[in-house]
Amino acid sequence: MSAQPQLSVVVPVFNEQGNVATLVHEIVAALRGAEPFEIVFVDDCSSDGTLAALQALKAQVPELRVVRHLANAGQSSAIRNGVKAARGAWIATLDGDGQNDPADLPKLLAQRDTAAPDTKLFAGWRVDRRDSGSKRWASKWANAIRRRLLHDDTPDTGCGTKLFEREAFLDLPFFNHMHRYLPALMQRAGWKTVSVPVNHRPRGTGVSKYNNLNRALVGIADLRGVAWLIKRGKVTRTEEV
């Protein structure tokens, strides 16, 4: 493993014992030889064998690091703690259920390498969702409402496949579920964002940790809060003189 990786792949997981090994090996296959990288899995206090599976994988994959929550804290906290632990200047994220395809990561990196310097987020866009009809319908309406309220010009903020600058991310306000609003929050901070079409796959094993009702209930409060943040936000650039 490089002493200083340029890219850190952060993966939050909760009870994903059956998915972590395949995902780790897919990340390695996608990135080895591309640029120095590390993989940071954050176990959100799983109650199955997820942590043991990750510890066993560390002996096989030198790029792998494992961070463990001492209490269940949710996906946003897992992502943030993974980013804080990461050593790369750029962060890629993937969901731990295997539905995001690590083979898309080089595509996001290529977009970054040709983008303007003030583009700090490359967000995956699942153009062909592999979810149930009810979940696709709920996401369609949630995305439409979000775009209307936040004006973030982003077709899909729920995709776990993202690439962003570590420093820019850590400068954002943190709150539970903030990972669903990264484009709007990055734009509020004065940065540009780009949506990149990516692959989406059926879940391999395990069950989803969300349902349409709990997403809707927390989404209403979150949208109001993010809209308030945008209204009250002010960007002031500085220079040393």
UniProtKB/TrEMBL annotation:
Keywords: Cell membrane, Glycosyltransferase, Lipopolysaccharide biosynthesis, Membrane, Transferase, Transmembrane, Transmembrane helix. InterPro entries: Glyco_trans_2-like (IPR001173), Glycosyltransferase_2 (IPR050256), Nucleotide-diphossugar_trans (IPR029044). The keyword Glycosyltransferase applies. Residues 8-169 form the Glycosyltransferase 2-like domain. The keyword Membrane applies. Gene3D superfamilies: Spore Coat Polysaccharide Biosynthesis Protein SpsA, Chain A. SUPFAM superfamilies: Nucleotide-diphospho-sugar transferases. This is Glycosyltransferase family 2 protein.
